[in-house]
Every structure is written in C-alpha cells, then in structure tokens.
Amino acid sequence: MLSSIGIPGLILILVIALIIFGPKKLPEIGRAFGRTLTEFKSATKELVSDDDKEEENNPELTTVEKKQDKSVVS
C-alpha cells in the first residue's frame, strides 16, 4: 500500500495533517494511531493462534478442510 503512494505523497499527507490538526495535536494522534495498530496486530495474532490451537486439538477438522480444498481445486 505504501509503495504506491511514494515519498512525495507521504510528505503531502504529513503537511495536510499538520495544517489540519496543528503541531500540538499531531503527536497525540500519532500515539493513538500507533496504539490502535498495536492492538489490532495483537488481536490478529490471537485469532490466528486460536485457529492453530483448534486445528491441533481437532485434527479431523484439518483433514476435512484439506479434502474440501482438493475437491474445489479439481
């Protein structure tokens, strides 16, 4: 996603954010965004680990899913 924006685009976004929110509010917004992103990543990891644990506890489920995947591909 960031590769399509480029450096000039990022600079423009930063300048617009600076104009809209001001220099005092911008660090607060950055911290809030960082915390939100961290929480989102941890929740995503938790969901993935829960799925992995479920597959380990129920190997029949994994076998059925693999058979379904093969039948869809065929």
TrEMBL record:
Residues 46-74 are annotated as: Disordered. One of its GO terms (cellular component) is TAT protein transport complex. InterPro entries: TatA/B/E, TatA/E. Keywords: Cell membrane, Membrane, Protein transport, Translocation, Transmembrane, Transmembrane helix, Transport. The keyword Glycoprotein does not apply. This is Sec-independent protein translocase protein TatA. Pfam families: TatA_B_E. Forms a complex with TatC. Residues 63-74 have a biased composition (Basic and acidic residues). The chain crosses the membrane at residues 6-23. GO terms for biological process: protein transport by the Tat complex. Its main location: membrane. The keyword Transmembrane helix applies. Belongs to the TatA/E family. It is found in: Cell membrane. It comes from the Bacteria. GO terms for molecular function: protein transmembrane transporter activity. The gene is tatA. It is a single-pass membrane protein. Part of the twin-arginine translocation (Tat) system that transports large folded proteins containing a characteristic twin-arginine motif in their signal peptide across membranes. TatA could form the protein-conducting channel of the Tat system.
